[in-house]
């Protein structure tokens, strides 16, 4: 079982970029067959999948958010990152990183001036 932990600013101003990092422990980000996801939860929309990066470093994004979303990784730190650009208050949510087996505890991000 791996442990995942989200980190990043809890407050972002409108039009700026939301940046979060997920740190993995108890295993490797390059473990064969693992995909690493970003998911968010809002009161209005429920759970929303944002995108993923595979154990080989390939990425896939939600059709609704692909133009604003970037996912990258740092294998030396066993971390993967989310960048969501041009945020609005509607991007306020709890952001989770996850594999198919494990989830982080979530990070609240509020978009407000």
How does this structure look, described?
With 113 residues, the chain is an all-beta fold. The chain is built from no helices and 10 strands. The chain has strands spanning 3-7, 11-12, 18-25, 35-42, 46-54, 59-61, 69-74, 79-84, 93-98, 107-111. The strands form 2 sheets. A 6-stranded mixed sheet has the order 2-10-9-4-5-6, with no helix packed on it. It has a 4-stranded antiparallel sheet with strand order 1-3-8-7, with no helix packed on it. Strand 7 (69-74) and strand 8 (79-84) form a beta hairpin. It is globular. The mean pLDDT is 96.
Notable traits:
mainly beta, 113 residues, six-stranded mixed β-sheet, 51% strand, globular
Describe what is shown at a glance.
This protein is mostly beta strands. It is built from no helices and ten strands.
Number of helical segments? 0
Report the helical percentage.
Answer: under 10%
Q: What is the SS-derived class?
A: mainly beta
Major β-sheet, in short? 6 strands, mixed
Proportion of residues in extended strands: over 45%
Task: Itemize the secondary structure elements and their pairings.
Layout (H helix, E strand, L loop, with lengths): L2 E5 L3 E2 L5 E8 L9 E8 L3 E9 L4 E3 L7 E6 L4 E6 L8 E6 L8 E5 L2
Parallel strand pairs: 2-10
Antiparallel strand pairs: 1-3, 3-8, 4-5, 4-9, 5-6, 7-8, 9-10
